[in-house]
């Protein structure tokens, strides 16, 4: 059972972890810190 099914549906979450940054960039799975920082920078541009 999902704790937040409406958010899971909205962002097409099928597994965790999944991060959505500014509704522009998505990261699925455990990401290395450097990759996570790069994705954040992509999302704010």
Structure commentary:
The protein is α+β, with helices and mostly antiparallel strands and 45 residues long. It has one domain (5-43). The protein has two helices and two strands; from the N terminus they run H-E-E-H. It has helices at 5-10, 33-43; strands at 18-21, 25-28. It has a two-stranded antiparallel sheet.
Q: Could you outline the blueprint of secondary structure elements for this entry?
A:
Elements: H1 5-10, E1 18-21, E2 25-28, H2 33-43
Average pLDDT across residues? 92
Number of beta strands: 2
Distance between the termini: 36 Å
How many H/I helices? 2
Pfam families: Thioredoxin_3
Domain Thioredoxin-like fold: 2-42
Protein name: Dehydrogenase, selenocysteine-containing
In short:
With 45 residues, the chain is an alpha+beta fold. It is 38% helix and 18% strand.
Pick out its properties.
45 residues, alpha+beta, single chain, Dehydrogenase, selenocysteine-containing
């Amino acid at each position: 059972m999902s704790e937040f099914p409406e958010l899971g549906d909205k962002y097409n979450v099928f597994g965790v972890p999944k991060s959505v940054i500014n509704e522009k960039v998505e990261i699925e799975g455990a990401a290395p810190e450097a990759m996570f920082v790069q994705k954040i920078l992509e999302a704010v541009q």
